[in-house]
Design brief:
The chain has twelve helices and two strands; from the N terminus they run αββααααααααααα. The longest helix has 54 residues, at 2-55. Strand 1 (58-61) and strand 2 (64-68) form a beta hairpin. It has a two-stranded antiparallel sheet with strand order 1-2. The protein has helices spanning 2-55, 72-78, 81-114, 119-131, 134-144, 152-159, 174-198, 203-211, 216-244, 248-253, 265-275, 279-310, and strands at 58-61, 64-68. The radius of gyration is 27 Å and the shape is globular.
Length: 311
């Protein structure tokens, strides 16, 4: 009986051995090439992400967990005035970002699409700010916007008999000015995407508008805008996702000031972790922020899938 069972199990072992050998021959090299990237992905992304979610449910001393407290960190964070102020500021960033960051690339793309001579020069010019590191852009604009008469922009305005202005020191002006610098540094890449989309417009549609007596405005309203609507919808959602993650520019240019007027949710998380040594509350803030980003990311993917299906 034992001999029969051994003979029955032998084919199974053989198939497993052959399958393993086949896997080694076929996939091992690929897995070896993938292993460094997979290790970095798990170690530098997923492990901190999961650990951050875990810490958000604990009372912490520095970055060490002390005891489990459930949702207490989330309640403390949401009811804190700095979080509420940063959330309202994020809303302001969003409004100004849509007004500037969404509109400027569209206008730039339309103008680039109409350029006849020196196309490469103008395309490089609009894209060049995207090649400048973000921290360099922030420092450059901070120097240009110095509040006294020796600041570059105030000096030029002073030659015209205007100013000086308190650009980044004005609570009412600081957010739109920061958004303006962000738009200068990032709108080029979006404009190139819009330009690529415009290149696919059927020129016969423009000719039809001309035959009907339409001008540039009619071409833009009845051909360009409908054609770009899908891309604009996706960029709109991407703009919101980017605004939720704003940190570098206000941190570098104003430190969240004046009086918290430019503070963002990312800065609130930073202050909890590195100023107040409250890693649990910092993690809770990051989880809330990450949840909002995830929601808009899902919306973005659904919109993109819908547009791809219709295309």
């Amino acid at each position: 009986m034992a001999t029969v069972k051994k003979k029955e199990k032998q084919p199974v072992r053989e198939r497993i051995r052959q399958g393993a050998a086949q896997w080694v021959r076929r996939d091992l090299v690929g897995w070896l090439l993938l292993l460094p990237s997979l290790f970095c992905f798990i170690f530098f992304l997923w492990q901190p992400l999961i650990n951050g979610v875990r810490i958000s449910f604990y009372e912490t001393r520095g970055f060490d967990t002390v005891r489990f407290i459930g949702l207490e960190n989330y309640v403390d964070v949401i009811t804190n005035s700095s979080f509420i102020n940063a959330a309202l500021n994020t809303l302001k960033y969003g409004v100004w970002s849509i007004m500037l960051g969404l509109l400027v690339p569209v206008i730039a793309a339309v103008l680039l699409n109409e350029v006849v001579h020196a196309k490469g020069f103008f395309r490089f010019g609009i894209y060049f700010p995207c090649m400048v590191p973000g921290i360099v852009t922030s420092v450059m604009w901070t120097i240009l916007l110095e509040p006294d008469a020796q600041g570059m922009l105030n000096y030029l305005l002073g030659r015209l008999g205007v100013g000086p202005f308190q650009f980044l020191q004005d609570p009412n002006a600081v957010v739109p000015i920061i958004v303006m610098t962000m738009t200068w540094g990032a709108s080029g890449s979006t404009a190139i995407l819009y330009l690529a989309d415009l290149q696919s417009v059927n020129t016969s549609l423009y000719e039809a508008v001309e035959i009907d007596g339409g001008g540039i405005l009619q071409k833009f309203l009845y051909v360009t805008v409908p054609h770009m609507s899908g891309m604009v919808r996706m960029m709109f959602i991407m703009q919101i996702i980017s605004v939720l993650q704003v940190f570098q520019q206000p941190f570098t240019m104003t430190g969240g000031g004046p009086n918290g007027a430019s503070e963002t949710l990312g800065m609130v998380a930073y202050n909890y972790a590195f100023i107040n040594n409250e890693a649990g509350k910092s993690a809770a803030t990051s989880v809330i922020l990450g949840g909002a980003i995830m929601i808009f990311s899902i919306v973005y993917m659904n919109v993109k899938k819908k547009d791809d299906t219709q295309a």
